[in-house]
Amino acid sequence: MNKEEFTKELKRINITVNQEQMDQLNKYYQLLVEWNQKINLTRIIEEQEVYLKHFYDSLTLSTIVDLNKELTLCDIGTGAGFPGIVLKIFFPTLSITLVDSLLKRVNFLNLVIKELKLENIEAIHIRAEDYVKLNKNKFDIVTSRAVSKLSNLLPYSIPLLKKDGYFIPMKANCEEEIEESKQELNKLKCKIFEINSFYLPMENSRRTLIKIGKSK
Fold first, then answer.
1. Is residue 204 very low, low, confident or very high in pLDDT (cuts 50, 70, 90)?
2. CA–CA separation, 209 vs 146, rounded Å?
3. Among the four residues 38, 118, 141, 146, which has the most C-beta atoms within 10 Å?
4. SS3 sequence, 61-82?
5. CA-to-CA distance for 148 and 207, rounded, in angstroms?
């Protein structure tokens, strides 16, 4: 996916791109390449692959929840900042917390935040199981992209949600994971409100967004 295709495909999901955002993404990509030589951030490093599988893919979260609001969002196991940093670039009204257990990755994230001049976003070096103990009922949205099985993520994510908040894990094929998580969903008194499955443009690999909230 080249940059022109990136812009075109985003229009299909109702995201308009401006030059400042493209400049920020370009800077982000350059930092990603530079730091990936020092620490393992991602195996995907070719520019067109990054724009499709990291940048575009991160923004598909907007297809299942309205991000054009003043919302608090937590990205669990953010890694190199996907989807959190990309979401911040395109939805500046979000207040975002990036959580990762590896200090070197958090150092990278803090550099990106500084270089891109992003505000109301922080990167925290902590394990998810420790973070949740201190931050219950805090976020409108919790997300996690390609981190762990759904049943493992639920205990660290659902307690972070406000009453009407949503946990939206970003997955590939996950029918089996959903089935395996039913017991954990019941235990945490939450349920699946929506499942959005689609295919990435060009490559056609499957993606699934699962909208989970506390039972009313």
1. confident
2. 11
3. 141
4. HHHCCCCCCCCEEEEECCCCCC
5. 15
Residue 64: closest CA among 137, 150, 171, 152: 171
Angle between helix 19-36 and 103-115 (nearest 10): 150
Average pLDDT value over all residues in the chain:
95
Token digits for 99? Answer: 């959580």
Please tell me the class of the 3-214 domain. alpha beta
d(CA 76, CA 97): 9
Instruction: Please give the Cα distance from 210 to 63 (Å, whole number).
Output: 11
Looking at the DSSP bridge assignments, the partners of residue 141 are 73, 166
Rounded Cα–Cα distance for residues 101 and 127 (Å): 5
CA angle 146, 53, 84 (to 5 degrees): 60
Q: How far does CA 203 lie from the centroid of its chain?
A: 20
Can you give the pLDDT at residue 62?
Answer: 98
pLDDT digits (tens, 9 = 90+) for 91-107: 999 999 999 999 999 99
Section 178-205 average pLDDT: 93
User: How far is the C-alpha of 207 from the C-alpha of 26, rounded, in Å?
Assistant: 24
User: Residue holding tokens 């917390």?
Assistant: 97
